[in-house]
Write a structure and sequence with these properties.
The complex is a heterodimer of chains A (326) and B (169). Chain A has twelve helices and no strands. With 326 residues, chain A is an all-alpha fold. Chain A is globular and about 70 Å long. Chain B has 169 residues and is an all-alpha fold. Chain B has two domains: 125 residues, Up-down Bundle (Four Helix Bundle (Hemerythrin (Met), subunit A)), CATH 1.20.120.1200; 43 residues. Chain B is built from six helices and no strands. Chain B is globular, with a radius of gyration of 19 Å. The chains are: A mainly alpha (326), B mainly alpha (169).
Chain lengths: 326, 169
């Protein structure tokens, strides 16, 4: 067996383990933040400050019986959670944690992440449709409209940065930025950063854009009928997708592993954690938007702004090249 | 590596064949779409074997991530379960014609490939994305634009089919 094959297998195993750990930490952080924002302590009983609560939750999920509703499509029903979780493992491969520290150095790393993150939408649709449940179907219908809409400004914002960096290789994009915050891409592309952040919230179905699983309207939306680890996989995939989105934002806009004094990987993890914390804060601070508002924000604001930003970026990049050649 | 490539080729062929049989044979429209997705993913794998990574990822991004999601949107507006009004299988004559439509061009192509083999470069070389872009806007611009006519034709075909149905009822 060739060495590259074994290399990828080891990387996938490491990624799977870290996604599990990430899920545990994020559940605790989310519940703690939610608690404190609502003036209550959050999980408190199991372990110091409720630190062991996520382990109990995980054990409960693993131990629960798996149910399938009558009239559901058995193959598609069980395919959906697996399909939502598997592509996530691939998404972590091209992310550079530090200078030369990455699972797989790819020239098209950014494209790989964009391509495979589209598969999770498909899993959401299949799960919602195969459940044979009106709430599931409504959640899936919302998921389609939302993901198709928000993918476009996301791609355009990412494209503007890769125009500027001249590469789709994530490590190259980071190398084009400097140590200090004013040398990062966010200084030259602030609008793209904002567009990226908003559409990333839409793509990961996080509040205030969590319409596909809006609890007060659709019970649990597309995963209403899933119990035990069927639900657990959707849940893990959501947190892993959040981490990927934040890591890509760090790489593209916040200088990746660059930073003064501290070692590179630490800076990377620090920036990703701060962005994750921001997403959690947003969820518990803002109310959910209505569906027409959600689509209006995208088609009337994000999309025109993203196109204008891309055109301006292309113009300035060409202009700079022209001046340099002259 | 040679053996691995052959194994991968066989695996992708199986995925493509299995997926396409599911896509045409399944009574449930959503299952048919899952078959189509498997086929598209298998084709992406074939592109990977040719070292055309950009093509493979674009295949996944556009066909699996966007086109199939839109197809799903259309399916949700129909009665897509196995007992829907359009679920019964087509008459034998149509099935035979469909089989012929696959076999005739397929065998002609296969015969051409077998009798007049193209010179191959052996190990596929990865083309840098800059070269790809320059090529599409430079020497291959006409071919690139002509391909987009395919979309126009398929749209016109869809409209034509819809009109014919409405006239028949």
């Amino acid at each position: 067996m060739p060495a590259e094959f074994i290399h990828i297998l080891i990387a996938l195993a490491v990624v799977a383990a870290s996604v599990g750990a990430l899920g545990l930490v994020m559940v605790w952080v989310e519940r703690k933040v939610a608690g404190h924002i609502q003036r209550r302590p959050g999980p408190f009983e199991v372990g110091p400050n409720g630190l062991l609560q996520p382990f109990c939750d995980a054990l409960k999920l693993v131990g629960k019986q798996l149910f399938m509703p009558n009239g559901a499509d058995p193959i598609l029903f069980w395919l959906a959670p697996v399909l939502s979780f598997l592509p996530v493992l691939v998404l972590f491969l091209p992310l550079p944690l530090g200078d030369g520290i990455m699972a797989q150095n790819m020239n098209l790393g950014l494209l790989l992440i964009l391509a495979f993150s589209g598969l999770s939408v498909l899993a959401l649709l299949l799960g919602g449709w195969a459940s044979n449940n009106k709430y599931g179907l409504l959640g899936a219908a919302r998921g389609v409209a939302q993901s198709v809409a928000y993918e476009i400004p996301l791609l355009l914002a990412v494209l503007a940065v890769s125009f500027q960096a001249g590469s789709l290789n994530l490590a190259e994009v980071v190398k084009g930025q400097g140590t200090w915050p004013w040398q990062w891409n966010i200084m030259t592309q602030p609008l793209a950063f904002l567009i990226y952040l908003v559409s990333a919230l839409g793509e990961t179905n996080r509040a205030p854009f969590d319409l596909p699983e809006a609890e007060s309207e659709l019970t649990a939306g597309f995963h209403t009928e899933y119990s035990g680890m069927g639900f657990g996989l959707f849940f893990l995939a959501e947190y892993a997708n959040m981490a990927v989105v934040c890591a890509v934002a760090t790489v593209l806009f916040l200088g990746g592993w660059h930073g003064p004094i501290l070692p590179g990987p630490l800076w990377f993890v620090l920036k990703v954690s701060l962005l994750l914390l921001l997403m959690v804060f947003l969820r518990w601070t803002y109310p959910r938007v209505r569906f027409d508002q959600l689509l209006n924000i995208n088609w009337k604001w994000l999309l025109p702004l993203a196109v204008a930003n891309l055109l301006l970026t292309a113009f300035f990049v060409k202009f700079a090249q022209y001046v340099v050649v002259k | 590596m040679e053996h691995m490539a052959k194994i991968a080729f066989g695996l992708y062929t199986l995925i493509i064949l299995g997926g396409s049989i599911l896509a045409v044979g399944s009574a449930s429209l959503v299952r048919a779409m899952v078959g189509l997705i498997a086929t598209l993913l298998g084709v992406a794998g074939m592109y990977m074997l040719l070292n055309a990574q950009f093509m493979a990822l674009m295949q996944i991004l556009i066909y699996v991530g966007a086109v199939c999601v839109l197809i799903f949107f259309a399916i949700m507006l129909t009665r897509a379960d196995g007992k829907g009004e359009e679920a019964e299988s087509a008459p034998v004559r149509k099935n035979v014609l469909a089989l012929l439509a696959v076999l005739v061009p397929g065998s002609i192509l296969a015969w051409l490939v077998m009798t007049k083999p193209q010179p191959t470069t052996g190990i596929p070389v990865e083309v840098a994305i800059e070269k790809l872009g320059l090529g599409l806007l430079g020497p291959y611009a006409l071919a690139f634009e002509l391909i987009s006519v395919v979309l126009l034709i398929s749209m016109a075909g869809a409209v034509l089919l819809a009109w014919e149905r409405r006239g028949g009822k």
